[in-house]
Amino acid sequence: MLLNQKNNNRSVLCLLALCCLITSACLSVASKPGLTVENGQLMRNGSEFRAMGINYNSAWYDVLKNPETLEVAEGFRILKQDYDIPFIRFSAGPYAHTGWKLYVEDPEEYLRRFDVLVKHAEAQGIGLIPSLFWSVSTMPDLQGEPLSALGDPDSKCRAFMRQYIRDVVGRYKDSPAIWGWEVGNEWNLYADLPKLDHLPPKKIGSNEARTAADKLLRPMLLDAYEDFYKTVREIDPDRIIVTGDSIARPTAWHNRNEDIWGQDSKAQWAEVFRADTPDCYEVASFHLYAEAEKSYFKNKDLPIEAFVQEVVGISRADNKIIWCGELGMPGADEASRKMFFRMINAVEQNEIAISAIWNFKPTGSFQADWDVSPTNERAYMLDAVKELNERFAIGDWK
User: Fold this and answer.
1) Res. 150 pLDDT band, cuts 50 70 90
2) What share of the chain is helix, strand, coil (3-state, %, to 5)?
3) Could you tell me if 150 and 224 are in contact, meaning their C-beta atoms sit under 8 angstroms apart?
4) Phi and psi, residue 342, nearest 5°
């Protein structure tokens, strides 16, 4: 009898210990902040996640210029409460080197203003995917280096980037508003351009022409991408990290390997597209615009739906989550409207886990032909995203 009692007690204790382990594991998964990748799936708060958001590119510019502005707070409110849009992508650093004066001279004041933006997002429960270094030329220009310095881990611009990452990621790694991190915007489109005929524009405020040292090559960008990933991961072990790349040009393989313009075969293009996402990244990035229609794989009749299916297939074969960071059309005529709906339908049909249309501006103007506002003729796009998410989104997206 006593022996049985001891065995029963031991069984109960083992069962309790097992329950504690399971509970602890579940809490560990659920407590990971933002968007994460678990076993090849995009996750949020312990559940698989899928939804469409929107770009709000000027949000940080507006707060940096005037931390007292209420426009961004109202913009977040509109997106979250009126349209159930779960997250935004935005430029999280000044566009040109001339805009970094405050951060260089008074980083605490700069970050105090960043606090304002993050607190507005926290108040509305809207997610943020900050793109830290939007323009590829900004950091080298700020440090007085050629663009090729991006490929040098010992350059001043790379050291500056690491410091900014530590400041921003370190400050907001515990904020529920941060859903992921992005390097910059479409850096890959500046790489491998043939000869020296396509160098970036002159540095703002300088009359000196760009030189051969300003020609960007893919290995330079990949080195910077890997450095970005490593630096973020040292601070934030969980949230997704993305390059911010657009879709590679239909001539990317010829640009890279032969320094010429030449139409790539599907195999050639796929080779470059795959290589643009370093192995350490769990998420592959692309942007979708009308230029993708009928121009890839030497196929003059390739519809955008078939192209997106190919891109998704390549990424999934590499076990990568797909991040369509921008999609959309300018204007509001019938042709633009039709193409826009074809794009978001392609997202839905291919079950792309995370995507964002371009570009929200609650008042005023940022990019006249592209501004999506609840009061202009492009407001239908906000309704379209809301309706898409209602039938398409899964997980903790509201």
Assistant:
1) very high
2) 50, 15, 40
3) yes
4) -65, -40
Rounded Cα distance between 328 and 370, Å, is 8
Angle at 321 between CA 316 and CA 322, to 5 degrees: 90
Would you say 246 and 287 are in contact if contact means Cβ atoms under 8 Å apart? yes
Beta bridge partners of 283: 321
The dihedrals phi and psi of 186, each to the nearest 5 degrees, come to 60, 40
**Cis bond upstream, residue 359 (ω within 30):** yes
Angle between helix 156-172 and helix 218-235 axes, rounded to 10 deg: 30
Question: Which phi and psi angles does 355 have, rounded to 5°?
Answer: -155, 165
Q: Report the candidate in 156, 146, 133, 152 with the shortest Cα–Cα distance to residue 202.
A: 146
Q: Check: CB of residue 136 under 8 Å from CB of residue 192.
A: no
Phi, psi of 390 (to 5 degrees): -65, -30
Q: Which residues, listed in sequence order, are joined to residue 240 by a DSSP beta bridge?
A: 180
How far is residue 293's CA from residue 248's CA, in Å, rounded to a whole number? 13
Beta bridge partners of 324: 286, 355
In this structure, the strands spanning 47-48 and 41-44 are antiparallel
Separation CA 310–CA 326 (nearest Å): 18
Task: Note the pLDDT tens digit of each residue in 277-329.
Answer: 999 999 999 999 999 998 899 888 899 999 999 999 999 999 999 999 999 99
3-state SS assignment for residue 180: strand
CATH class of 35-392: alpha beta
Q: How far apart are CA 348 and CA 308, in angstroms?
A: 11
Q: In Å, how far are 132, 346, 389 from 309, measured between CA atoms?
A: 29, 8, 20
Q: Which of 117, 121, 127 is nearest to 93 (CA)?
A: 117
Please, what is the average pLDDT of the chain? 93
**Tell me, what amino acid is at 343?**
M
